[in-house]
What does this fold into?
Amino acid sequence: MFIQENYVRVAIAKAGGPTAVSNQIGCSNACIHLWVKKRRVANIVKARQLAELSGIALEKLRGGV
It folds into this structure.
């Protein structure tokens, strides 16, 4: 069984954690935790902001979309 890395979780950790990311991006902690659970950031603007903060590729944060 192949388990894919949760790039959203890694990006949030690199950017300082859920609270820091939610403050910098301008969304709630609940939203951040939903992204981690779904393993993707559906909102392209928020995904770009997280990519810039973390250095993780946008495509990985979008879940390969």
Observations:
- The two ends are 22 Å apart (CA to CA).
- The CA atoms of residues 15 and 21 lie 6 Å apart.
- The longest helix spans residues 44-54.
